[in-house]
Specification:
55% helix; two-stranded antiparallel sheet; alpha/beta
């Protein structure tokens, strides 16, 4: 325990202290007051008109008390400086859909009239709907609080900016379509389900002849004024502030509508018919949580992601960060406090957030000022604002949704820059627009994770060459100056190796080497298994008797199951040209590597003494263990996989070393490690050494954990840099050539010291 850690924990739990103690009164106070006035005045008509969208007339005062408590809660616990917390029309519609699913009929009919609240049965149904709404909001907050305490907010880290932009664009379109009720002054039966936005547009088109012309005219006039105000700039402390046209419109139109009857739809008719103005706060009913738990979970996810998406958008614009887990806790506490007032689940109010940001708000003090102004005006001047036409509010909402729609302009840029992100944008937008905020979010996240997985595991390999007289290696297909080193093939792997791309890794390697892999036949597999068991205690015994109570021994480890053949060879099975002698050797041995090469033509023309020589060579190495993956250290030896039916030719290749550049490889999973081990052995058996360069220590640790190393594949094959691996490969090959030249007898030695015919044949075979 220390005071520094205690202070850090307190600042993390209460983010308000971070900006409160460093508040710049001279620079920020007037800006926050300006933003708070605009947001507070906007929230008043927005709260009065929520009844028309949800068709469930909540008590008016309860809704404003809930908005005030939620705003103050987020001021204390939220980390975003520009979020305006409040009800979101699409979330409210989701709650209303939940009530409809549970057989609660809507209270407000499609003709705009309320039901008869004097009926006791209907009143009981109404109170049950309010109780269920409170329970849904409470359970939503509990789920968000538990997710935040479990630190599950990190999921948003894996969501790209394109997904956020597309999601908010589709959500903005949903909000705009929901405002058609206020624009046209008509009420329709909202369709819920897939493609609901298109069904609602079709229904609006059908009832368009019944629209209120005055509402449409007011809407158009207000839109023009709001768009013109965009070009009026106010500068305070060298920072631009938007002209407060929303505040001016609300006050001006409200005063005019109270003096002159504008023949436009307003909230006065609906508000006056609500039976209760205020219901005292009560704890939510917890008896019906099992009915709504899945609905509440969906609501909690959508509410949280909408909040975080908008918060990240404005945090990136103003160069600060938000804490995802703390946002979960903050919105969860907001929903819990809202449930006591029998109100809907809350999230980020898109229009209010845009207004707060563009009018100069710098901290959450603007949200606190706005919430206080809203509550005071509602309690004292509520009837004054009920006369404001609905079209004015719709104009403010629609115009403030336009910044989100501007993201359509990013589509050509994404097409040129990154088509993967373009696919994410289009899938997210289409899913959210057609299937809703909840199902669309799930589909977009699934698509994003799939694309990220495919892109991160997509194998990309290049062949490298050396820049002459330099220790720099570049792609042969890109750099003309790069030249391939004779006898050395350098491959650079540009991604991690996993089960998803290991086959492509193998195929690319073999194709560049002009080879293909052919499965071993039964005799060759049996020979490998016998070699793997050669170091056991029963070596050489044909019969063994053991008690069944004894634990079974480990299964023999087969180093490889395929052999390499030339790609242009006509055959591919046992009749194809392949390796006649399988050769293993401990890497790093100073002794020369010997491989017996026997061609098909040589086998036909050789004398019987040749076979005797081969058998002699085999008998000399008999009893010596081969180089297997079990790690037994053995001398250089050769194991003959000989079939009596036919003779095979050896696969000759001008390449003596393959170097794999692993500088870009971050991990190699278990299956890829097994495949890489087989590749090492397959190339080693045809006389090609495989080296690895620039391998990160974490990848080497993975190899050790996966039992990758054995007596053949040692850490001597790993080099710190690519140039070190090239120098080692060239030096080793040159040393072998010199050793062969030194051991080769001259023609004079043949004449002075005559050899027996059989010894000459043995030498030629070697």
């Amino acid at each position: 325990f220390s005071w520094g850690r205690f202070r850090k924990i307190i600042l993390k739990l209460f983010p308000v202290l971070n900006w409160l103690f460093s508040y710049r009164f001279r620079e920020w106070l007037l800006r926050d007051i300006h933003a708070g006035l605009s947001v507070g005045m906007f929230q008043i008509p927005q709260g009065l008109l929520g009844v028309l969208l949800t068709r469930l007339p909540l008590p008016i005062i309860n809704g404003f008390y809930s908005a005030f408590c939620c705003s103050m809660t987020y001021v204390i616990f939220g980390t975003s400086h520009h979020i305006s917390i409040g009800s979101f029309s699409i979330l409210n519609a989701m709650v209303a859909n939940i009530l409809k699913t549970l057989n609660f009929n809507q209270i407000l009919s499609s003709n705009g009239s309320l039901a008869n609240f004097s009926d006791p049965a209907f009143m009981k149904n109404y109170m049950e709907a309010l109780t269920l709404t409170a329970s849904t909001t409470f359970l939503t907050g509990i789920i968000q609080l538990l997710l935040g305490c479990s630190c599950l907010g990190f999921i948003t880290t894996y969501l790209p900016k394109t997904l956020i932009d597309a999601y908010l664009t589709a959500a903005a379109l949903h909000v705009i379509v929901s405002q058609f009720t206020f624009i046209f002054g008509i009420i329709i039966d909202f369709h819920k389900g897939p493609l609901d936005i298109f069904y609602n547009l079709f229904h609006y088109f059908l009832v368009l002849p019944k629209a209120n012309a005055t509402s449409i005219l007011l809407f158009l006039v207000c839109v023009v004024m709001l768009r013109v105000s965009k070009y009026i700039k106010i500068t305070y402390k060298h920072s631009p502030i938007a002209f407060p046209m929303e505040l001016l419109l609300i006050i001006t139109v409200t005063i005019i509508s109270n003096r002159i009857h504008l023949h436009a739809e307003s909230s006065r008719v609906v508000v006056n018919m609500i039976p209760h103005r205020f219901l005292p706060p009560t704890p939510p009913d917890l008896s019906n949580l099992n009915k709504i738990i899945f609905h509440a979970f969906s609501l909690a996810i959508v509410s949280y992601f909408l909040l975080v998406f908008v918060g990240k958008r404005y945090a990136s614009l103003h160069n600060y960060n938000i804490a995802s887990n703390q946002e979960l806790i903050a919105v969860g506490l907001c929903n819990i406090s809202s449930s006591f007032f029998k109100s809907f689940a809350v999230s980020c109010a898109l229009s209010g957030t845009v207004i707060q940001e563009k009018t100069g708000g710098r901290t959450q003090l603007a949200a606190a000022i706005g919430a206080s102004i809203m509550l005071v005006f509602v309690l004292k001047l509520r009837y004054f604002f009920q006369a404001m036409p609905n079209g004015v509010l719709a104009a403010i909402v629609v115009v403030n949704m336009l910044p989100f729609l501007e993201k359509f302009l990013d589509i050509p840029t994404l097409w040129r820059q990154d088509k993967y992100h373009l696919v994410i944008w289009l899938v997210t937008f289409a899913a959210v627009l057609c299937l809703g905020l909840d199902v669309g979010l799930a589909i977009s996240m699934g698509c994003t994770f799939f694309i990220i997985t495919v892109r991160s595991h997509r194998m990309k390999m290049v062949v490298l060459g050396q820049i002459p007289n330099m220790n720099i290696y570049r792609s042969l297909s890109v750099y003309r100056a790069a030249m391939e080193i004779e006898g050395v093939k350098i491959f650079q792997c540009c991604s991690s190796i996993s089960f998803a791309n290991m086959k492509h890794f193998k195929n690319y390697l073999l194709s560049k080497m002009d080879m293909k892999a052919v499965p071993l036949d039964e005799n060759e597999m049996r020979a490998l298994i016998s070699v793997s068991l050669s170091d056991t205690t029963v070596q050489g015994k044909d019969f063994k008797c053991a008690c069944v109570c004894d634990p079974p021994g480990p299964a023999p480890r087969i180093p490889y199951t395929e052999k390499l053949v030339k790609r242009h060879d006509p055959g591919s099975g046992s009749s194809s040209s392949s390796v006649n002698l399988v050769h293993w050797s401990k890497y790093g041995d100073r002794s020369s590597h010997r491989t017996l090469l026997v061609g098909a033509a040589q086998a036909q023309s050789a004398s019987p003494g040749l076979k005797t020589g081969l058998e002699t060579e085999k008998s000399q190495d008999e009893g010596k263990g081969a180089c297997l993956s079990s790690g037994s250290a053995t001398d250089n030896s050769s194991v003959l996989l000989h079939q009596e039916e036919e003779q095979k030719t050896h696969l000759l290749s001008p390449v003596h070393t393959i170097i794999l550049d692993f500088s870009m490889v971050q991990f190699v999973d278990l299956q890829a490690s097994d495949l890489l081990r087989q590749i090492f052995h397959m190339f080693h058996n045809i006389g090609i050494t495989v080296l690895i360069a620039s391998c990160h220590f974490s990848v080497i640790a993975i190899f050790e954990k996966n039992d990758f190393f054995d007596s053949c594949i040692t850490k001597e094959r790993f080099f710190l840099t690519l140039h070190d691996a090239v120098l080692a490969a060239l030096e080793k090959h040159q040393r072998q050539d010199e050793l062969e030249l030194a051991n080769r007898p001259t023609e004079r030695e043949f004449t002075q010291e005559p050899f027996a015919e059989q010894q000459k044949v043995e030498y030629l075979a070697f």
